[in-house]
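To: structure subgroup
Subject: Chain for Friday's discussion

All,

I'm putting the inputs and outputs inline so they're searchable in the archive.
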Amino acid sequence: MKTFSAYRLLFTPLSPIHIGTGESYEPTNYVIEDDTLHEFDTGSVVETLSATDRQMLEAIVNRTPDDGMIRAIQKYFHDRRATLMPRAVHRIPVQTGVARLYADRVGQTAQQEARGRRVINQLVINRTAYNPATRLPVLMGSSVKGAIRTALLDQVNAGRSTTEREGLHPFQGKAELFRYYDRRAICERDPMRLVHLSDAAWQGEPGLPAAEIVFAVNRKKAPTGDQQGNQRSTRADSGPPQILECVPALRYRAFAGQLNVQLLGDVNRPGGVPAADLRFDLDRIAQACNAFYRPILENEMSLLSQRGYLDTEWGNTLNEVLSSSLLEGRGAFLLRVGRHSGAESVTLNGVRKIQDREETTATTVWLAAKERDHPSGLLPFGWVLVECSPLGSGKVDESDSLKVLCERRLAAVRQWAGRVRSKESEWQRKGWGPQGVGPVRHQPKPTHPRCSWVDQKLQELCSKPGIKPDDALRGPALAEAVRAIEDQALRAEAVADIVARWKEKGWWDHTSGGAAKKAKAIYEELLKASS
């Protein structure tokens, strides 16, 4: 009996996405010049400084660790940005307002509290989830699965209301919903244990930045002007600025991941497995997600347009996406993931109460902005289009209409990438490149079809301390994982991809080291078996 149905998932971010992990860019490991953030490795860069500069830095860090020391360190690195920028290991485009804020406040006092204590604006930029080996964004499987779970719960609940204030599992696991909770065994009967989502690796167009830095601004949904007609700011937006690294909007199939649905067949052990009518297949997942998220997206776009907040060009593009055939049938569905997804997208119809109030909709909305005080040209957070195809079915056909719509947003991005490449070439000619590690943003375009399974497995292996991408690709752990793949078509696709990658790097005909020889022997065995 087949135990899994496996699908390749291709994700196109429709709006900026930020999935937080608690990590951030600190102004002691980046500088901003014009429209670019340059991230550098502090330890490596310090070695390139003059003896006098190192003595000055040592004198600063040996001071009392207070606001003044933090401000002095910020100013120290900012003043030496001409030296630091060529040695950056990563570069990201920055919206104009963020760049201006940095220039105005780096090393300065941000505000004065009522008690007189000086508060330092540390210019921390919240970082989105990323692969530390490549510095490229990752779409976390847990975020995707959580969004799917919400849509399925809403479908099963069918708008029923409740006045109960229950915990997470008592509410979701009760008899009217997923029917798994009885305080003794929670996970065994949870229907979502049969739905497995991998993290989705970045596969966007090489040479273009995979992230951008924006403001997150909070706006009222209802008009609330003063006597002069000026809109009052929200409590959240009147506080310190919120700066986020985001995956940019409208990047064609920027992520690739995998969905496995475990199949139980006729297995029916009461109390031990999910109920038969709660075993979700791809059709039901897609239907539930579109039924739940599409009305939220359409209502939000309508509201933002009426209030004058919406980026008009983006809104026109999204209307074309929604009016196309992309969301028909089982081939694609909408999701909303990450920070600032909005209360409506993470709660169920019929039981929604916003912050213990009786209202069923939030009174404010968080939006991505180029300038903190701009009243228009804003984008909502978190929207993504997911396209599905059976794993092992060969190369997925291009969605030409979606690709064309996404290309409309890339003119400015291509210009930014061209300027950065010119500067990098100039710095390299002068011998000013990074010490020990090079920029990873510009990657050569693969000369052969890539297998998403291989990308995901390499990402998993590289998440372990000390494992570098080349070591993982050349090592026996990857080879053993390929040999364990049950799907013959997928296994053949993975082997072909890995062998091609080895040949591109010159390893296949010149293998050295016991680990690489062991891995090659496994691939030769698999090639022979499939011929």
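Points worth raising on Friday:
The radius of gyration is 25 Å.
The CA atoms of residues 422 and 428 lie 10 Å apart.

D.
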